[in-house]
From TrEMBL:
Signal peptide (residue range): none
Localization in the cell: Cell inner membrane; Membrane
GO CC, any one term: plasma membrane
Name of protein: Biopolymer transport protein ExbB
GO biological process, one term: protein import
Keyword Nucleotide-binding included in the entry's annotation: no
Domain MotA/TolQ/ExbB proton channel: 96-214
Gene: exbB_1
Species this protein is from: Croceibacterium atlanticum
Length: 261
């Protein structure tokens, strides 16, 4: 008897789930897959911008350590200090642009003050750096603002299809409305899952960009003061740590002399 029961249970077919994600998307057709593809592109683009901008910001903060430690300002001149900075860095760009502006001012024939010319050149250099850092953030803002509505479009289409099925069938049976309603709920959820990380990433990166802009503004002010004072004005920096003096080698022990009896 037990063997017959086990054989009958094993022979029963496992009921298939007809209301899963793929089934709902297949019922939605090309429109559902198109909306889903747009949301996937938005999500991938948002995470790509987040990772690349985070790497770029961390690099700028890391390069600022050499300036904060005083290694740059301990140089005898700005040109010598610029050589100590990493090539193609934002900080070296400010120094090189300031030195180029100082050299160009000597070639001018009008009465433009050096301070105004240098200040304008440094402001233009800061603006170019900040503009580069802000690249990609409008995409995050756009995704955060539009992704819920893209998902809502899929929701509206899914509900519309559910109503059509109810009208054709003449009854609101679960097998007629489960697929379209499931598709509608899935699109709503995906739209929110795409929008929320994009908004959080935008706000976080924007706050870090503001911190970098403050550091750039302070550094350019120090450079302007240093050039205007011909190298006399420098920020207070800590002295370089002195290297410990080498320990003297221990003196060789003298051999003991035997005492005569």
């Amino acid at each position: 008897m037990l063997i017959d029961i086990l054989a009958a249970a094993a022979g029963e077919a496992t009921p298939q789930n007809k209301f899963g994600f793929l089934e709902a998307m297949e019922q939605g057709g090309m429109i559902a897959w198109t909306i889903f593809g747009v949301l996937v592109i938005m999500s991938v683009g948002s995470f790509y911008i987040l990772i690349t901008k985070l790497f770029e910001q961390n690099k700028i903060f890391s390069q600022f350590k050499s300036i904060r430690s005083g290694a740059f300002w301990r140089a005898s001149s700005l040109k010598e200090g610029s050589a100590k900075l990493e090539k193609n860095s934002a900080w070296r760009q400010l120094v090189d642009d300031a030195l180029a502006a100082e050299e160009q001012h000597t070639k001018m024939t009008d009465s433009l003050e050096a301070h105004d010319w240098l200040h304008g050149s440094l402001a233009r250099s800061e603006a170019s750096i900040n503009s580069k850092l802000a690249g990609g953030l409008p995409f995050l803002a756009t995704v955060g603002a539009t992704a819920p509505f893209v998902g809502l479009l899929g929701t509206v289409i899914g509900i519309y299809r559910a109503l059509i099925n109810i009208g054709l069938a003449g009854s609101a049976s679960i097998d007629k409305v489960a697929g379209p309603v499931g598709e509608a709920l899935i699109m709503t959820a995906i739209g929110l899952l795409v929008a929320v990380p994009a908004v959080l990433a935008y706000n976080w990166l924007q706050g870090r960009n503001k911190k970098i802009a403050e550091l750039l503004s302070g550094f350019s002010t120090d450079i302007l003061a240093n050039i205007a004072s011909r190298g006399s004005v420098k920020p207070a920096v800590t002295a370089a740590p002195a290297k410990p003096a080498p320990k003297p080698a221990p003196a060789a022990a003298k051999p003991a002399t035997a005492t005569k009896a």
